Amino acid sequence: IKKIGVMTSGGDSPGMNAAIRSVVRTCAYHNVKCVGIYRGYEGVMDGDFKDMDARSVKDIVNKGGTILKSARSKDFRTPEGRKIAHQKLKNAGVDALVVIGGDGSFNGGLIFNQEFDFPVIGIPGTIDNDIFGTSHTLGFDTALNTVVECIDKIRDTASSHNRLFFVEVMGRDVGHIALNAGIGAGAEEILIPEENLGLERLLESLQRSKRSGKSSSIVVVAEGDKIGKNVFELKDYVETNLDEYDVRVSVLGHMQRGGPPSCFDRVLASRMGVKAVESLLEGKSSVMVGLSDGKMILTPLEQAVKGKSQINRELLRVSEIMST
Ligand code: F6P
């Protein structure tokens, strides 16, 4: 392998820049050329490439977002789009890809690898932590810290006014952000898709906490939860059924995806970049780099896209005990 292309694809996440830097510098370390590809698979099809050397990634380890930009591509899902992409890579002399992204991006990489026998390695980058084959995705830890910081602030005003707040957090179909940040921020209840609390039990829980002397409460709601009402409907429902509650809603939104990466995410990104490039140089392909028990591991892309990341059920119990 003489030239490696690196790109970011799907929703951005803090730590992607640190991963780009790591891929570029590991290439430089091993005397392999590296090109940055802009806007994910869209940029592959457009041949939007830029040669990158070790100095071109200075001052980005601490930056959120991605200097290579990111996109979700429709055209790459078609055989014609992938054929164009393959041609563009061949023309530029790129003979392997490092894809930093989520499962949609890995699916694209997997098909591309199968169609053209083109070496592809994935680095999991998403705040949702919803990828099988790694305990942590890039950006998850930073997003947790952001959410906890926001809820700490919400708590101040909730407590001053004796209010109940529903705080909606991201996570797409999974509850990792809600569950972890909810415990970290001392939430009263945490609503996640993996465990449907039910409306009745939510009311009971809120009544119980009032009786136990709590004057304000925070309920963290994962955007994909299955309780059947969105946060605004939940507010109306609780206010209708429990007179004693004055309820407010806060939807944290995209602020969860931005900001400087935490030290954990920077170190993880640096490790993953090294592992990805060195695995390619060892002849590995169609695998994803991941973290397991503190070590770097490889998981076949096929498993990474098919498998489901599980929530840590111990945390459910911890959360229940903490809200006593
Ligand atoms: O996958 C990351 C994520 O931020 C999810 O948590 C969220 O559901 C989605 O992306 C939002 O996507 P968009 O930025 O396209 O609105």
Automatic annotation (TrEMBL):
Q: Which GO terms describe its cellular component?
A: 6-phosphofructokinase complex
List the EC numbers from the record.
Answer: 2.7.1.11
Q: Enumerate the Pfam families for this protein.
A: PFK (PF00365)
Give details on activation and inhibition.
Answer: Allosterically activated by ADP and other diphosphonucleosides, and allosterically inhibited by phosphoenolpyruvate.
Listed GO MF terms: 6-phosphofructokinase activity; AMP binding; ATP binding; fructose-6-phosphate binding; identical protein binding; metal ion binding; monosaccharide binding
Q: State its cofactor.
A: Mg(2+)
Residues reported to bind ATP: G11, R72, S73, G102, D103, G104, S105
GO BP annotations, alphabetical order: canonical glycolysis; fructose 1,6-bisphosphate metabolic process; fructose 6-phosphate metabolic process
Q: How does it assemble?
A: Homotetramer.
* PANTHER family on file: ATP-DEPENDENT 6-PHOSPHOFRUCTOKINASE, PHOSPHOFRUCTOKINASE
Q: What is this protein called?
A: ATP-dependent 6-phosphofructokinase
